[in-house]
Design a protein that fits this description.
Helix content is 34%, strand content 13%. By secondary structure, the chain is of the alpha+beta class. The protein starts with 17 loop residues before the first helix and ends with a helix.
């Protein structure tokens, strides 16, 4: 567990210290672009990333063409979703590394401000326990208002069809 000394801080409106977010980011292989599951030498697409609704119906799919789950794939899906929603709707987002995605969005202004204000980031159930305790307290869907007992694993179930 990282040392939370006086130099550690919080990025913008985030409620988890930077040191905890850094530790979470280092612990997930999906975010590691150096670990390749498919060769980009012979394949144009290395994987698919999907955006599913609460009922686990596929809304959009994107071809991944780089090693690892780069954040721009998720950001593209989120941007596409907001282009099709009324301006007053709030979206609950369940993503394996939602803490990292929100951290990047806040730190680097990767999403429009009006989108960020309407997003509730949470971690899908299967991955929640791979995160540090502070991340689990903030990003676990069962600890967030409006998520009910959702597990956020619809994408995994979709891949097994």
């Amino acid at each position: 567990m990282p040392n939370l000394d006086e130099e550690d801080g919080f990025e913008g409106s985030l409620r988890v210290p930077n040191s905890i977010l850094d530790a979470c980011g280092e612990s997930f292989t999906a975010a590691d672009g150096d670990r390749q599951k498919a060769s980009t030498q012979f394949l144009d697409s290395t994987a698919l990333m999907g955006l599913l609704c609460h009922h686990d119906h596929v809304l959009w799919l994107v071809n991944m063409t780089t090693p690892g789950e780069r954040q721009h794939y998720a950001l593209t899906l989120i941007d596409t979703l907001f282009q099709h929603l009324p301006d007053h709707w709030t979206v609950g987002l369940l993503y394996n590394i939602a803490c990292q995605l929100e951290h990047s969005c806040v730190k680097w202004d990767l999403l429009k401000e009006e989108y960020l204000d309407r997003l509730a980031f949470t971690i899908s159930m299967f991955h929640a326990f791979g995160h540090g305790w502070p991340c689990q307290c903030i990003y676990h869907p069962w600890k967030r208002m409006g998520f009910g007992l959702v597990d956020g694993e619809g994408c995994k179930q979709f891949w097994h069809l």
